[in-house]
Amino acid sequence: MIDQRLPRYEWGQEVVAATDLYNDGSLPDVPEDQLVVAAGGPGEIVQVGHHGEANIPLYMVDFGIVVLGCLEEEIVPPGLYVPEAEGVAA
């Protein structure tokens, strides 16, 4: 049996979007692929779940204007967010 991967973040924790977040089709009143939350947008984790098949934590994050399901790679604590420099290639 595979052990459940523990979440990095917890309920009630403040986070920011680490990247631009677009509608993946889960928001029926918003056009698909439309920007919903820009990178750096503040939010709060309101629920922590787990995707059993993929064995990854999932987070419901309230960004004020919308609640989105996010992966760990899509959110970071506010002090760890570093905006990408515009016009600079990685």
UniProtKB/TrEMBL annotation:
Entry protein name: Nitrogen fixation protein NifZ
Protein keywords: Nitrogen fixation
InterPro entries associated with the record: Nitrogenase_MoFe_mat_NifZ
Family: Belongs to the NifZ family.
Species of origin: Sphaerotilus hippei
GO-annotated biological processes: nitrogen fixation
